[in-house]
Structures are given as C-alpha cells and as structure tokens.
Amino acid sequence: MATGYLWDTLYGWMDTGTGGLTSANLAARVQPISHHLAHPDTKRRFHELVRASGQFQSLTPVNARPARDKDILRVHTAGHLERMRELSARETGGDAGDGVTHLGNGGLEIALLAAGGAIEMAKSVVGGEIDNGYALVNPPGHHAPRDAAMGFCIFNNSSVAAAYARHELGLERVAIVDWDVHHGNGTQDIWWEDPSVLTLSLHQHLCFPPESGYLHERGGGAGQGYNLNVPMPPGCGNGAYLHAMDTVVLPALRAYRPQLIIVGCGFDASIMDPLARMMVTSEGFRSMTRRIREAAGDLCAGRLMFIQEGGYSPHYVPFCGLAVLQELAGEGGLEDPYLEFLSGMGGAELLDEQRARIEEAVPLIDALR
Ligand code: 9RB
Ligand code: ZN
Fold first, then answer.
1. Among all ligands shown, which has an atom nearest to the Cα of 100?
2. Active-site residue flag, 35
3. Residues 186, 207: Cα–Cα separation, whole Å
4. Residue 99, domain member (yes or no)
C-alpha cells in the first residue's frame, strides 16, 4: 500500500494574528496572545510527529505546488480571489472578512499552496502513483463559500481538488466526506446545485457557523438530494461517530458510487479540542479511517485522499493524525500515549439520544439511488 503524504514548511508560516479567536482589541479587553486558536503550530506538531515517529519512512512524499488562478476560479468568484490578493499585498495583511480569519502579508501565497497541495494529492491518487494519501495543508478550506473567506478558511481546498478531478482528470463523480466537527458550509455552498460532487458533513449541530448545517439543507436544482448533513448533539464519542459512518456515510457512498473519495479531515471532534464538545479519541479516528478505506477499496479502486481541515489541540491532534496515517498505510507503529487515560473518561458508547439524532439522516440516502 503506497500512501502519499504532503506538508509544506510555508503551511506553518500562516499568520493568524494577535488574538485568540477574534483580533486582540484593547477597548473590548481582548488581550493579545502568542497562539491564536488556529495557530499553525498544531499542524506543524502533527508533521513533526510524522517525522519523529518514523511513520514518514513508510509514506510517499508528494510536493505541494501553488494552485493557478484558473484552479481557484473553478469554485470561487474572481472578486474573492482579488480581495485576497489585495489583502495579502498589504504590509500587515488584515481581516479576510468575518472578524476571525486573518490573512497576513503574503498569506495568499500560502493559501494558494494549500489549494494546490490538495490538487497535487488528487493528481497522484487518480494517476495511480499512490493508493491513497494525506494532504496536511494549512490554511483549512471547508468554511469558504464561493465568494468569501470564513472561519480560518481562505480557499476551499477540497472543492478545488474535486473540481480539478472533474475537469482535468476526467472523473464524473466525486464524494467529499467532511468529518471536521464544524459544518462544511462552504463546500455545501459550492456544490449546492451540482450532483457530480456529493457533499456530506458530520458535525456538532450549530457549533459553527451559526444557523448552518441543518438536516433539511439538501441541495437545490440538479443538485437536489446531493448534499447530506448529519447534525449531531454535543458529547458524541467513538460509538456515535462509527454509528454515523455505518448508517449514513458508507451507505450513501455505496448508493452514489464515487470515483474518488475526499475526506475533509478535522481533528476538532477530539476529546481534547477547545473549540467543540465531542469525545472522539485517536482510536475513533483510526476506526473511521479503516471503514472509509475499505469502502474506497470496494467502490473506487481504493482512490481516497484526506485533506486537513481543523483541529485545535496542540497536544492531541498529532496523535489523532498519526493514527489516521497508520490506518491509511495499513500498518501500525507508535501508540497514542494518551489513549488509555482518555478512554477511561467514558463517552465512547452510543447513547439512545445520539442514535436517534443520527438516524434522522438515514432517509436522505434514498435520494442517491
Ligand atoms: C465570529 C466568531 C469561530 C470561528 C471559527 C471556528 C472554527 C472553525 C473550524 C469557531 C468559532 C466569534 C464570527 C467568536 O475549526 N472549522 O473547521 N468564531 N467566530 N465571534 N464572531 C463574530
Ligand atoms: Zn472545524
């Protein structure tokens, strides 16, 4: 099993500003802090664990290249790209539009490298140079709709890769499974009327963005039925997530028969994450990865690529990520040193309330057959 892996030093140079979530603001008494919640060190620590654990030796390196304007413009407006270009050219950058998404000086170059990294991984997987792959990109992408930056996201990396696969690699059906704990609203927006990309988001209901990610948001026009949301209550752990995979995600994939599966892989559903209230451990992410790898094997010759989204525990993201990489590559290695302790906290078993909420999404699959 050849598993591709992609990281670029510049991903760790994303300037997230001086605040913790919003900008530091003296009048509002929001103090500056060295690490914004989305500071890239969390992802850099993941990369460093990949190197220091020895896992890197079993992976096939894939190099990032910047996305071209035409790659971005398949899924974003020219106005959005130009606004980001203008902001990035400013001496100190600035807010990209929603009050929490800072784009520093030169940040456009890094955002284009993230979108381009997703493209390079898609090329390698579809071209057969690797069986599957993990693009550890930054900034993330799934909140960015066609015409804006939002929620730490500048360009919608997974959508840029899906559009590339559709238009340059000749695929007819691509599925994007987004298990970041927040709603993949940008991806939903971009493919709303397009049945050639199935979009599926598992998320903590209303965690972010506000008023987004309801079950009844199902796509429109020709895309009607091809957007699936699985809003989950706070407190879901491994059992609930695996139930969502078994009853909604995998049956939806089997009904849709994609030629490539893209996973929007956030680790912010983890039990250690500061920005949400779920309880998934590295073992949960490992099991979800195994299930989707097996599904990709059955459905699309194993063509599967992961694209990094959120994840804000600098302590735990590296070990969740390592578990996913081990599972993609089909071999074990270094163990999660926190797992025994975290497993003792409970929360792994599926509760009736969680089961009921998740199974509300099961009838949505009928539209895909
Ligand atoms: C806004 C605020 C946010 C923004 C982004 C996230 C997580 C993103 C992620 C969480 C909270 C606040 C718009 C505070 O991880 N996605 O995967 N909060 N945003 N105040 N205001 C006005
Ligand atoms: Zn998230």
1. 1
2. no
3. 15
4. yes
Q: CATH number, domain at 303?
A: 3.40.800.20
Regarding the beta carbon of 299 and ligand 1, being less than 6 Å apart is answered no
The pair phi, psi for residue 357, each rounded to 5°, is -65, -40
Q: Which is it for strands 102-103 and 227-232: parallel, antiparallel or unpaired?
A: unpaired
Domain that holds residue 268: 3-20+32-368
Strand order across the beta sheet in which 260-265 lies: 60-61, 3-6, 132-135, 304-308, 260-265, 174-178, 197-204, 227-232
Number of domains present in the structure of the chain: 1
77-131 residue pLDDT tens: 999 999 999 999 999 999 999 999 999 999 999 999 999 999 999 999 999 999 9
As residues whose CB is below 5 A from the ion ligand 2, the structure lists 180, 182, 266, 268, 310
The residues of the chain scoring below 50 in pLDDT are: none
| Residue 26 resides in a domain | no
43 lines ligand 1 (CB under 6 A): no
Q: Is 152 in the pocket of ligand 1 (CB under 6 A)?
A: yes
Task: Give domain status of residue 27, yes or no.
Answer: no
Tokens of 256: 């849709």
Q: Which of 78, 227, 76 is nearest to 155 (CA)?
A: 76
- Three-class DSSP category at 319: helix
Tell me if residue 97 falls in helix, strand or coil: coil
Pocket test for ligand 1, best of 182, 263, 312 (most atoms within 8 A of CB): 182
* Residue 327 included in any domain: yes
Q: How far is the C-alpha of 143 from the C-alpha of 248, rounded, in Å?
A: 22
